[in-house]
Write a structure and sequence with these properties.
The structure is a homodimer.
Chain A: H1 3-10, H2 14-22, H3 29-41, H4 48-55, E1 60-67, H5 75-91, E2 94-101, H6 105-114, E3 120-123, H7 132-139, E4 143-146, E5 158-161, H8 163-176, E6 182-186, H9 192-207, E7 217-219, H10 224-236, E8 243-246, H11 249-261, E9 271-276, E10 292-295, H12 298-313, E11 322-325, E12 328-330
Parallel strand pairs in A: 1-2, 1-3, 3-4, 4-5, 5-11, 6-7, 6-8, 8-9, 9-10
Antiparallel strand pairs in A: 10-12
Helix pairs in contact in A: 1-2, 1-3, 5-12, 6-7, 8-9, 10-11
Chain A binds a DNA duplex (30 and 30 nucleotides) through helix 2 and helix 4.
Protein name (chains A, B): Substrate-binding domain-containing protein
Pfam family, one (chains A, B): Peripla_BP_3
GO molecular function, one term (chains A, B): DNA-binding transcription factor activity
DNA sequence: GGATCCTCCCAAACCGCTTTGAATTACAAC
DNA sequence: GTTGTAATTCAAAGCGGTTTGGGAGGATCC
C-alpha cells in the first residue's frame, strides 16, 4: 500500500495526498479529511526509508554503547537510554543502538554518520583522552556528550552532573563526621566522570590539610564483587578505613555485604556514601534511604539529552549547549560519626 | 559524495560501480580494483536510506522494551540487547530500539513494522495473555519471542530457558536439604517466565506431598528493596521460612542484606537460591559463588536470538524455530541444611 | 472587462541506490 | 566471413516518498 495507490483510490495526485497527510496548508479542509479517512481505511503508512531518502533526514539518533574490556555492560547506559527513549517517542525520533567492544566505538560512530543512519549521535562515557569529537566533526555530525571531554568543555555540547562537587561534598560530610581514613572505590579513572570524582575527593582532603592514601583508592568496573572484595581487603588491612565513598550503588551493595558479614554495622561501625544514579531497579529512596548518597538521575539526564539534541542542537549545530545537573546529597542510614580510636 | 559523482570520477556507469562495490561477478578484476581504490580515496559511503529503499530491506531488527508500570527498567533487557547487539554488528544489521510504557508496546511494534523500519522484531517479555503475535502476524513481520507465549509454543519461533524445570530442581535441592518452609520471591506472574517458575516450584512441593503457603509467595518487579522488604516481613512473621527461592540476583541481594542485618548467616541459618541471569555487573562466579543459583546467560540468549532471527527466520519465515536453553544449577555459599526445629 | 490575487491541485523532477535488459567488444568456432 | 559465446559495461527503470514550479478557476479590485 503506497502513496500512488492511495492517490489513485482518491483520484488525486500524489502531491496533494502527501501534502494533506503532512499538514501543509495548500489543501482544502474537505480534501484533507477525505484523504486522512481513506488512508486510515485502507491502512496506508508511508514507507520510512523513502521518506528519509526524500527529506534527507533519518529521523533517528545514534547511540553507541561500549562494552568494557571485562565484558561489563554498565546498567547506567540502559537507564540513560530509557530516559532518552521516552523523549524520542514523544518527539517522533527513532533510536539506533550499537553495542560494540571498546575498540570498535569509533568505527561505529563513523558508520552511523557516514552512512547517514542517524542525524545526530550521543557520545556516551567520554574518556579523558577521547577523540570521538574530532571524528564526528570531520564527519559533520551533530552530537551531544553525556559527560565532558577534557579541553572541549566550551566548544562542544554536553549534559553532565557536577561530579567533582558532589564527591567533594560527600567527602566533606564524612570528614565532618570525624572520619579520617576514607576509602574511595571509584570507576575506571580514564573515564572523565571518575577522574572528576577523584579530584573532588582529593580536593576535600587537601582543603583540610589531609593527604590521600593510595592504599585506600581503587578504580575498576563497578560490579558488586568489586565493592565486596575491596572492602574486605581494606577492612582486613593494617590500617583500615572507617568510611567508604563509592562510585556506584552496585558496588556499594558489595561493600555493605562485606561489612555485615564481618559483624559490623553499617552507619555505626563503618560509614558508606555512594553515588546513586537512581537506577530503577535499585531504588534508594524514602525518608531515610538505606544509603547516604549523592544522587542524580541518569534517566532524567537521558531525557534531557534527547530533548536538547533534537530541539537545540539539530536546528543550530554550531551553538554549543551545556546543561549542568547538580547532584543532591541525601543523608541516609549508612553514615554516622567516626568511633575509631584514632 | 554519492554514487553518481564517484562513477563520473571513474568514467564508469553507476551500474558498474555499484556492482564492483557490492561484489557482483560481472565486473573485471581490474575495474573492481580501480573502483574500490577510488571509493576509498574520495571517501565514498553509500547512503543507507537509498540502499534500503532500493533493496526493500531495512537491514535492521526492531526491539521494543517495555517500562513497567512502576517505571522499572529491567536490566535483563539491557544484557539481552548487549548480546544481540554483538551479533548484529557481526551480521551487518542495525538495532532500532524503542523504550515505551507498557501500554504503548503494541503501537510501537505496529510502527516498526508498518513503516518498514525493521525487517523483523524481537518480542520481549511475553505475558501469559499476550497478543503481540497476532498483531505482528497481520502486519506480516517475522519475529522471534524471547520466552514463550502460552498456546503459541509450536507455531511461533522462540528462544527460552527451561524456567519450570530450573525452579523445580532448585526447590528439590532445598527440600533435599531438609527445608520445608520455602519462600518464593517471584517476578510479576502475568509474565510467562514467572508463571512457569512458579509452576516448577509448586510441582516440586506437590511431588513430595507438600502444600504451598500463600504467605510465602510474592510477586513484584524485581528490585533490591523488594527482596529486602519481603525477607524482613517473612522472617519477622509468625512462621518464618528457612529458605528463599528468588527470581533475580538483584532481589536476592536485598534478601541477603536483611539476613545479615538480622545477625543471621546466609547458608547456615537461612538458605537462598536465586536465578542468576549472568548479568555482567553482578557476577556470581568462581569455584564457590556467593549465591547458589540456577544460571542461564541472557546475554547468550540475546546473541542466539539475533542469529536465529537473521539466519533462520528471515530467509524462511514460515518455519518456526525453537531453542531451549537449560539453566545450570550451581551450588554456592548460600545454601545449607535446614536447622529449624520443626 | 481586465488585471491581480488567492485557493487548491497537479505533473514532473528529485533523493541515491539497485537491478533489469540490452549493447558492445573480443575471441573462438565453423 | 559469419556466427556463437563469454566477458564487460551501460542506459534506464524502478524503489516510494517530498518538493518545485506552475496552472486552472474563482473572487476581488479598479
Amino acid at each position: 500500500m503506497n502513496l500512488k495507490q492511495l492517490s489513485e483510490a482518491l483520484s488525486l495526485s500524489q502531491t496533494t495526498v502527501s501534502r494533506a497527510l503532512n499538514g501543509y496548508p495548500e489543501v482544502s479542509a474537505e480534501t484533507r479529511k477525505r484523504v486522512v479517512e481513506m488512508a486510515r481505511k485502507i491502512g496506508y503508512a508511508p514507507n520510512s526509508q523513502a521518506r528519509k531518502l526524500a527529506t534527507g533526514r533519518a529521523m533517528a539518533i545514534g547511540h553507541v554503547i561500549p562494552v568494557s574490556q571485562h565484558e561489563m555492560m554498565n546498567p547506567v547506559f540502559m537507564e540513560f537510554i530509557a530516559g532518552a527513549g521516552e523523549a524520542y517517542s514523544r518527539l517522533g525520533y527513532d533510536m539506533v543502538l550499537k553495542v560494540v567492544p571498546d575498540a570498535q566505538v569509533e568505527g561505529a560512530y563513523r558508520e552511523l554518520a557516514s552512512l547517514k543512519k542517524a542525524d545526530a549521535v550521543i557520545v556516551h562515557g567520554p574518556r579523558i583522552h577521547d577523540t570521538r569529537h574530532e571524528i564526528l566533526d570531520t564527519l559533520g555530525v551533530p552530537f551531544l556528550i553525556h559527560g565532558r571531554i577534557p579541553g572541549q568543555e566550551e566548544a562542544r555540547s554536553w549534559i553532565d552532573m557536577n561530579n567533582a562537587h558532589a564527591f567533594e561534598r560527600a567527602t566533606d560530610l564524612l570528614l565532618d563526621l570525624g572520619h579520617r581514613r576514607i576509602a574511595l572505590l571509584n570507576g575506571l579513572e580514564d573515564m572523565d566522570f571518575a577522574a572528576r570524582r577523584r579530584r573532588g575527593f582529593e580536593k576535600a582532603l587537601t582543603n583540610r590539610g589531609l593527604s590521600t592514601d593510595p592504599a585506600l583508592m581503587r578504580q575498576a568496573d563497578m560490579t558488586e564483587p568489586y565493592g565486596a572484595e575491596s572492602a574486605l581487603d581494606m577492612l582486613d588491612g593494617a590500617n583500615p578505613p572507617t568510611a567508604f565513598l563509592v562510585s556506584s550503588m552496585i558496588s556499594a551493595l558489595g561493600v555493605a555485604r562485606v561489612i555485615s558479614q564481618k559483624g559490623l554495622q553499617i552507619g555505626r561501625d563503618v560509614s558508606v556514601i555512594t553515588h546513586d544514579d537512581a537506577l530503577s531497579f535499585l531504588p534508594n529512596g524514602g525518608d531515610d534511604p538505606i544509603f547516604t548518597c549523592t544522587r542524580s538521575s541518569v534517566r532524567y539526564a537521558g531525557q534531557r539529552a534527547a530533548e536538547l539534541l533534537i530541539e537545540q542542537i539539530l536546528p543550530n549545530p554550531d551553538v554549543p549547549v551545556h546543561e549542568y545537573l547538580e547532584a543532591e546529597l541525601i543523608i541516609g542510614q549508612s553514615t554516622g560519626p567516626c568511633h575509631a580510636t584514632a
